[in-house]
Specification:
Blueprint: H1 12-18, H2 26-36, H3 39-46, H4 53-63, E1 66-67, E2 82-84, E3 87-89, E4 93-95, H5 108-119, E5 122-125, H6 133-139, E6 144-149, H7 155-168, E7 173-176, H8 186-191, E8 215-216, E9 219-220, H9 231-239, E10 244-249, H10 252-260, E11 265-268, H11 282-293, E12 298-302, H12 308-316, E13 321-324, H13 326-357, E14 371-372
Helix pairs in contact: 2-13, 5-6, 5-13, 10-11, 12-13
The chain binds flavin mononucleotide and the ligand CCCCCCC(=O)C(=O)O.
Active site: 271 (proton acceptor)
Pfam families: FMN_dh (PF01070)
GO molecular function: (S)-2-hydroxy-acid oxidase activity; FMN binding
């Protein structure tokens, strides 16, 4: 991915200094992470599927959208707060579930959770966290958290994690539906990428870790169930009272089915372009889904959010909140909890500024009138 940053002139010797310079935008963190992580780790985080068309289009699509700013609207006071599933967060940006945070920073997901708690936003913990859900909750006891669930062939295993996170105070379950199989990520294959042996998928320590059979990323490959279907949404509802959010919807047809199946939210997502290459950029898929859902449930989005004006565009097109994946990991690689906080703070500042410059005083004032649609 391009760094999009004005540091390209910095020589490698000067690059050491780079770490002490102010981080100005999210691509500064990307550049830092690329320089400091091992190649295999960097490649895993950066990976897209196949030719990475969808991964890259997630970012480019925002740059094709133009805004229609309003003026003279007294933007001396602005309020970025919003709610998700009835809970207030400081601005409409949360942290998407990403796996293996301990590869980026020794405290891994505990650091991520502390940062989200400090900024008062939502952190979605991945099934494949390298700290256990118990450790994460203990690290940030007042944080607002959802848990991302992959459905295992062994349903008892999924059932037990659902009960565990519900008892721990997680506030929603995010069912990821776009990974019946892992996408083909060429660099991971070339690098024979594996979770380093000193790290574990801690939630299932001693269970899937020791299962026999072929491995993917150093964890058993045949654990996720490719046969999951809409009826499993009913199965999940039978296990829990938590709201269920489906992550990985890209069409109006599936959005309608999600509503009909009684879930409480949708994340418009293509898994950061790591699964099907050739699918739409998420911001391009958003409008048809918002139009279909008609406010019956909340619609969120992830993929390619790198600036405050990206957030503004997604909210204007109907996303209640957006989530960042890779940028949080870059923040971790930079400075752990403080790095993730900085990433969120920069996005918050940029979002506030974009709101003000387009004449919006609060999130409720952001709507489709802000978007310039191409003339036919
Ligand atoms: C390194 C990495 C690991 C990921 N792990 C998971 C995961 O465990 N569960 C999941 O539902 N999505 C996972 N995702 C997808 C993210 O939740 C999210 O959809 C995506 O990263 C958003 O795009 P962005 O990175 O451009 O912000 C992962 C993405 C990345 C980059
Ligand atoms: C065996 C499947 C590993 C998936 C790891 C997490 C993930 O979703 C990713 O995109 O990477």
């Amino acid at each position: 991915m391009s760094t999009g940053c004005n540091r390209d002139h910095i020589s490698s010797r000067e690059g050491v200094r780079c770490a002490e310079m102010a981080m100005v935008c999210l691509t500064d963190f990307e550049e830092y992470a690329k320089e400091h992580l091992s190649k295999a780790t960097w490649d895993y985080y950066a990976a897209g599927a196949d030719e990475c068309c969808t991964r890259d289009d997630n970012l480019l699509a925002y740059k094709r959208i133009r805004l229609r700013p309003r003026i003279l609207r007294d933007v001396s006071v602005s309020d970025t707060r919003t709610t998700v599933q009835g809970t207030e967060i400081s601005f409409p940006v949360g942290i998407a579930p990403t796996a293996f945070h301990c590869m980026a920073w020794h405290e891994g997901e505990m650091a991520t959770a502390r940062a989200a708690e400090a900024v008062n936003t939502c952190y979605i913990t991945s099934t494949y966290s390298t700290c256990s859900v118990e450790e994460i909750v203990a690290a940030a006891p007042n944080g607002y958290r959802w848990f991302q669930l992959y459905v295992y062939r062994d349903r008892k295993l999924s059932e037990s994690i659902v009960h565990r996170v519900e008892a721990l105070g997680y506030k929603a379950l995010v069912l990821t539906v776009d990974v019946p199989y892992t996408g083909k990520r060429r660099d991971d294959i070339r690098n024979q990428f594996k979770l380093p042996p000193h790290l574990k998928v801690k939630n299932f320590d001693g269970v899937i870790q020791e299962a026999a059979g072929p491995e993917e990323y150093g964890i058993p490959a045949n654990t996720l169930d490719p046969s999951i279907s809409w009826k499993d949404v009913y199965w999940l509802q039978s296990l829990t009272r938590l709201p269920i959010v489906i992550k990985g919807i890209l069409t109006k047809e599936d959005a309608e089915l999600a509503v009909e199946h009684g879930v409480q939210g949708i994340i418009v997502s293509n898994h950061g372009g790591r699964q099907l290459d050739g699918g739409p950029a998420t911001i391009d898929a958003l409008s048809e889904i918002v139009d279909t859902v008609q406010g019956r449930i909340e619609v969120y989005l992830d993929g390619g959010i790198r600036t405050g004006s990206d957030v503004l565009k997604a909210v204007a097109l109907g996303a209640k909140c957006v989530f960042i994946g890779r940028p949080a990991v870059w923040g971790l690689a930079y400075k752990g909890e403080d790095g993730v906080r900085e990433v969120l703070q920069i996005l918050n500042d940029e979002f506030r500024l974009s709101m003000a410059l387009s004449g919006c005083r609060n999130v409720a004032e952001i709507n489709r009138n802000l978007i310039q649609f191409a003339k036919l």
